[in-house]
Design a protein that fits this description.
With 325 residues, the protein is of the alpha/beta class. It has one domain: NADP-dependent oxidoreductase domain (TIM Barrel), CATH 3.20.20. 38% of the residues lie in helices and 13% in strands. It contains 13 helices and ten strands. Strands 3-4-5-6-7-8-9-10 form an eight-stranded parallel sheet. A two-stranded antiparallel sheet has the order 1-2. Helix 1 links the parallel strand 3 and strand 4. The longest helix is centred in the middle third of the chain and has 13 residues. The two termini are 33 Å apart. Bound molecules: NADPH dihydro-nicotinamide-adenine-dinucleotide phosphate (NDP). NADPH dihydro-nicotinamide-adenine-dinucleotide phosphate binds next to helix 10.
């Protein structure tokens, strides 16, 4: 079946079905990666304050010559900025050289204690405990609503067109839905062959929240086509394993954000394969049997709060997810 080139968000906004990821895109390379992606036909770039490279992303956008109105740009509220939402988005817009975002996500439900400069400007570092770990703001982490209310105001003001969440499990998203004036249009979570999360995917789709698939290729260092089901389909369709993984996500209704700084891979990853329903189901079954593992795990960077991290980070292999939902 031919796969959609766009998804429609619950507020009617269209989002291209494949976006370029920019996490860990090194300085000196991300500008050209973004420019080459836009010139190769991408119209969707996934960014974040946390990636510390939005200035270069902005340069890449400008260099590409593609009109702003044609590009869907996402950025994210950093964990240190839950009490400085407006300042954070202003900083992001300045770095990107833009006057609005298409989508602004709460990057994590988890908030950190910021080290706010005496002049009240944007925090650029967090407070550390005696062991040098970032201190978690437990109260704010347990209640994302005040920051969400600030994000809603950004929509009212036209600084962002849509708002959503990231790394929210079903319980947290359901709770937010009860109180949100503006519904989250998307939840960006880890969705990969090694962490397919079918229950979360189905719940988000049922609630008209677009599941965005981060680390769709298994992230850095992963083997992208080493599993039999992927190899077989790649050979059959004459494409790379990466194309099968990206197309599978689109076919199951998720919005993949493959990252690359390699021009040939960037161009390649945009090619969707017309997988049949049977092939998509076959991949789903193979993924459910694959060894499950989470690739995005920053638990060592923070203070003793594995409980919150674990609970805020959905994954199939996460018992907390199963018991709490
Ligand atoms: P991906 O799963 O996209 O994998 C990226 C890796 O795959 C890189 O090493 C890249 O290498 C390599 N690669 C890309 N294309 C190919 C190909 N065709 N063949 C072989 N290797 C390939 O990992 P990410 O973890 O970066 O996830 C994607 C994006 O999702 C991020 O960049 C970010 O935008 C978003 N994200 C969001 C998170 C969140 O908390 N909301 C967390 C994690 C990611 P190279 O670049 O050298 O070509």
């Amino acid at each position: 079946m031919s796969l959609p080139t766009h998804f429609t968000l619950s507020n009617g906004q269209k989002i291209p079905s494949v976006g370029l990821g920019t996490w860990q895109s090194p300085p000196g390379q991300v500008r050209d990666a973004v420019c080459s992606a836009l010139q190769a036909g991408y119209r969707h770039i996934d960014c974040a304050w946390a990636y510390q490279n939005q200035g270069e992303v902005g340069e890449g956008i400008k260099l590409s010559g593609v009109p702003r109105a044609e590009i869907f740009i996402t950025s994210k509220l950093f964990e240190l900025h839950h009490n400085q939402v407006r300042l954070s988005v202003e900083d992001t817009l300045k770095d990107l050289g833009l006057d609005y975002l298409d989508l602004f996500l709460m990057h994590w439900p988890l908030a950190l204690v910021p080290d706010i400069p005496a002049d009240g400007s944007l925090a650029r570092k967090g407070k550390l405990d005696a062991a040098g770990k970032q201190i978690v703001d437990r109260e704010t982490s347990d209640d994302p609503l005040p920051a969400w209310r600030e994000m809603e105001k950004l929509v009212d003001e036209g600084l962002v067109k849509s708002i959503g969440v990231s790394n929210f499990n079903i319980r947290r998203t359901r709770e937010l839905l009860k109180h949100a004036r503006i519904k989250p249009v998307a939840d960006q979570v880890e969705l990969s062959f090694g962490n397919p999360q079918p229950e979360l995917l189905a719940w988000l789709k049922k609630n008209d929240i677009l599941p965005q698939a981060y680390s769709p290729l298994g992230s850095t260092g992963a083997s992208h086509a080493s599993l039999e089901a992927i190899d077989t389909l790649a050979k059959k369709h004459g494409v790379q394993g990466a194309n099968i993984l990206i197309s599978w996500q689109v076919g199951r209704g998720a919005n993949p954000l493959p990252k690359s700084v390699t021009p040939a891979r960037i161009a390649n990853n945009l090619k969707l394969v017309a997988l049949s329903k049977a092939e998509i189901d076959e991949l789903e079954a193979a993924a459910s049997k694959a060894e499950h593992k989470r690739v995005c795990d920053q638990s060592d960077d923070f203070d003793a709060r594995w409980d919150i991290f674990e609970e805020s980070h959905p994954t199939n292999c996460d018992k907390v997810q199963a018991t709490k939902d």
